[in-house]
Write a structure and sequence with these properties.
The protein is α+β, with helices and mostly antiparallel strands. It has a single domain, classed as Sandwich (Jelly Rolls), CATH 2.60.120. The chain contains three helices and twelve strands; from the N terminus they run H-E-E-E-E-E-H-E-E-E-E-E-E-E-H. The protein has helices at residues 3-20, 96-102, 214-239; strands spanning 25-30, 36-37, 48-49, 69-73, 84-88, 105-110, 116-129, 137-142, 152-155, 164-169, 182-189, 197-210. Strands 1, 2, 3, 4, 5, 7, 10 and 12 form an eight-stranded antiparallel sheet that branches. It has a four-stranded antiparallel sheet with strand order 6-11-8-9. Helix 1 (3-20) runs antiparallel to helix 3 (214-239). The two termini are 21 Å apart. Bound molecules: calcium ion.
């Protein structure tokens, strides 16, 4: 490959990357810093919300199923970071399948500001069982497919004060180029009323970018096409 070809290919690669890719940022973070109930009121607000998220959409973690009890507490023995979100399925689900069938979950929502779109990358959190009884766990679904498919889920293997770190991939096309609101449901289950699942440090990562205006697309296409034209003219002149 000639030097000019290499330059051209490199230019196109850089231009394409600059146009489409952006470093993943933290979009939402919940560390549950303050003890208290989460059952009433607006729920548990994120500690951080990306400035390009629509503040009019309720991003708080909240009991939208009315099938659980949740609160921010400092249980003993203590986790490495406290307080934590304690969730009690109230005996409404003893398996992931039952949690989904019976609608036993908490949820949170987000939406990019008007004129922006979001690309999600991943959701991370830590979870532990509040006691020895099993199974206790979680399953994640989203509004983008009407809560039809389980994105990820697990029986939690660790008991307080040990917790398990989860990293859920959201790079699927379903979670890219989203301009509407997204609601995530975290379905929960445990063997009996009072047996809890405990969460902390919930973080949603991704990027939020302005939707390109038609004029911006024209400029971008022009920037990509000029080197092509230059190259084809040079080839033509050389051949002539
Ligand atoms: Ca915490």
């Amino acid at each position: 490959m000639r030097r000019f070809d290499l330059f051209f290919v490199g230019f196109c690669a850089v231009a394409a990357c600059a146009a489409t890719a952006a470093r993943a940022d933290m979009l939402l973070q919940y560390t549950f810093p303050t003890t208290g109930g989460g059952e009433t009121g607006p729920g548990l607000d994120p500690d951080y919300a990306h400035p390009d998220l629509d503040a009019a959409v309720l991003m708080a973690i909240r009991d939208t199923s009315s099938k659980i009890t949740m609160a921010v507490e400092t249980p003993t023995p203590a986790y490495a970071s406290q307080p934590v979100l304690r969730v009690n399925p109230d005996g409404n689900a003893s398996s992931a399948a039952a949690a989904i069938t019976n609608g036993v979950y908490f949820s949170f929502s987000l939406k990019p500001d008007d004129g922006y779109f979001v690309n999600l990358t991943n959701l991370t959190f830590q979870a532990g069982r509040g006691g020895a009884g099993t199974p206790r766990g979680w399953a994640l679904r989203s509004s983008l497919d009407g809560y039809a498919a389980t994105i990820a889920g697990a029986d939690i293997p660790t008991v307080r004060p040990n917790r398990t770190a989860y990293d859920i991939d959201l790079s699927d096309a379903l979670y890219q180029n989203v301009t509407d609101s997204i609601t995530f449901r975290v379905y929960v289950y445990s063997p009996a009323a009072g047996s809890t699942i405990e969460f902390d440090n919930v973080v949603l990562n991704g990027t939020i970018q302005p939707v390109p205006e038609p004029a911006a697309w024209a400029i971008l296409l022009g920037a990509l096409c000029v080197p092509l034209l230059v190259r084809s003219r040079r080839c033509f002149c050389k051949a002539a």
